[in-house]
Amino acid sequence: MTQIQFGSSITPAELTGTLGGITIQGVYKALRSLQIPTEATSTRRKLVPSKGVRKLFEDRGFVYPKQNLSFQIVKGGTGKTSLSYSLAVRAYQYGARVLCIDFDQQGNLTRSFNVEARDRPVWLNLFRDRLDASQGVVEVADTLHLIPSNLNNSRLDVELTGSASNLRDMIRDKLADIRDRYDLVIMDCPPAINKINTAAACASDRIIVPVNPDPYAMDGLDFTITELERIRADFKLGFDFRIVWNRYDARERLGMYYIHELAKRPERAEMVLPFVIRTDSSVKNAIFDSKSVFDLNKKSVVREDIDQFAKEILGVNAWKESQISGGQA
Ligand SMILES: Nc1ncnc2c1ncn2[C@@H]1O[C@H](COP(=O)(O)OP(=O)(O)O)[C@@H](O)[C@H]1O
Ligand SMILES: [Mg+2]
User: Fold this and answer.
1) 319 neighbors 62 (Cβ within 8 angstroms)
2) Residue whose CA is closest, atom 9 of ligand 1?
3) Distances in Å between the alpha carbon of 103 and those of 51, 108, 122, 223, 260?
4) How many other C-beta atoms can be found within 10 angstroms of the C-beta atom of residue 57?
């Protein structure tokens, strides 16, 4: 297995935008006083490694959220895997400790991380053969881990149907021993509402539903949310939803139309994240090259959008506001 290096990628300049009311000199001063080493790129740009960002954030009072997220929508191709991957990498770069779980038998998330999982235990084995969760964990980077998937997971739904297992607690129970090692657990799901998706929903604090601004995705959106709300009621759970617009292309006139239409529906509007993730070929290229959009040298639009997305999920945006109003230097 080739280990990809998720190079550190946060620059001191980017940190000024994240920490409220701090200058670049202030960032360097904080890095020095906390003895946080920076790494230099070939172009001599300075980068702050994940652990360093964590130290800096925690020193300034940031508390990393403990949250289980799943990406779900019955429609394929809307960005569940790409966003799971990009969010995981960016959250990691911001210092979060992240566990990804690939529940899709296609194993696209696993491949994105360049992990060869043909002979590795996947969730089917953890469940059926009663392995410990830690036996399934692959360390992609120091605090970015993955429970991969392969075609064996195509049996998982049948296994879950046949067993008297408890869908509601199955995933949380299995993760109990290792949950404390992570802040975020990010579950990438197949495009379905089956037993696996139900179990993943039950283990979620928040379900992220990526939609594309086109008429077909809208059908999938309503179906998915209605079904998941039914599951939430049946199991008496409390997860919430966030809808994220992905593959937005300003040149497509109808894109904005769908965004407006959804915003008019109060029961959905409050779930929608207040930004869009734009269409950008670097999403495809990044995964093909086993890099994240943050490791590509070129600036890409999606890099900014995913940065927003990660900061929103981590609560960094709200934290920044509070620092500014608190008047910290
Ligand atoms: N913002 C984006 N810009 C360009 N291509 C994207 C974007 N998001 C996803 N894609 C591409 O769309 C395809 C489907 O995305 P994927 O994440 O695999 O969807 P899902 O997991 O929902 O089936 C992939 O080829 C991916 O590279
Ligand atoms: Mg997928």
Assistant:
1) yes
2) 79
3) 28, 10, 9, 20, 32
4) 21
Cα–chain center distance at 170: 21
| Residues whose CB falls within 8 Å of the CB of residue 161, separated by 6 or more in sequence, listed in order | 195
| The model's pTM | 0.94
Residue 121: both structure tokens together:
């235990």
With contact defined as beta carbons under 8 Å apart, do 262 and 255 qualify?
A: no
Query: Which domains are present in the chain?
Result: 63-326 (3.40.50.300)
The verdict on the CB of residue 78 being under 6 Å from ligand 1 is yes
Ligand 1 centre to CA of 154 (Å) is 22
pLDDT tens-digit map of 51-94: 999 999 999 999 999 999 999 999 999 999 999 999 999 999 99
Q: From residue 19, give the alpha-carbon distance in Å to each of 53, 275, 281, 304.
A: 11, 20, 30, 16
SS (H, E, C) 138-194: EEEECCEEEECCCHHHHHHHHHHHHCCCCCCCHHHHHHCCCHHHCCEEEEECCCCCC
Cα separation, 329 vs 324, whole angstroms: 9
